[in-house]
Design a protein that fits this description.
This protein is mainly alpha-helical and 121 residues long. It folds into 2 domains: 63 residues, Orthogonal Bundle (434 Repressor (Amino-terminal Domain)); 32 residues. 61% of the residues lie in helices and 0% in strands. Helix 1 crosses helix 5 and helix 2 crosses helix 3.
Length: 121
């Protein structure tokens, strides 16, 4: 397995990274769309700088095209990559969550979702 390419310069746009990805893998917008389960017009909008992908699409791109790291793709989209959740951290979160009342759990989920959704913008 190849090591993902280095982190991009701060001024690299998502359209530029997508062009490099398509060149590296010898694929076009239609083939990218098919491989990641997106509509070709969506990928075309990314390619022309009219839109940037959501976090889920960026993660899928990184899995399907592993020469391009999540870090590089997220940076080019102007977003910060979500941190991986280690088993220890997951256990710690669940341990705290288990000590909350039902109402507190619901409120915390709403708050956490709002924070996570802000990463999608």
């Amino acid at each position: 397995m190849e090591v993902p390419k280095s982190t991009p310069p701060a001024d690299e746009t998502f359209a530029q990274v997508l062009a490099a990805l398509k060149d590296e893998y010898g694929v076009n917008d239609s083939q990218v769309a098919k491989r990641i389960g997106a509509h070709v017009s969506t990928v075309n909008n990314w390619a022309h700088g009219k839109a940037t992908p959501r976090a889920a699409a960026i993660r899928t791109l990184a899995v399907v095209f592993p020469k391009f790291s999540e870090e590089r793709l997220f940076a080019a989209a102007g977003k910060r990559a979500p941190a991986p959740l280690s088993p220890d951290r997951r256990d710690a979160v669940l341990e705290v969550f288990d000590r909350l009342t039902k109402e507190q759990q619901e409120m915390l989920l709403i708050q956490a979702s709002a924070v996570a959704d802000s990463n999608e913008q």
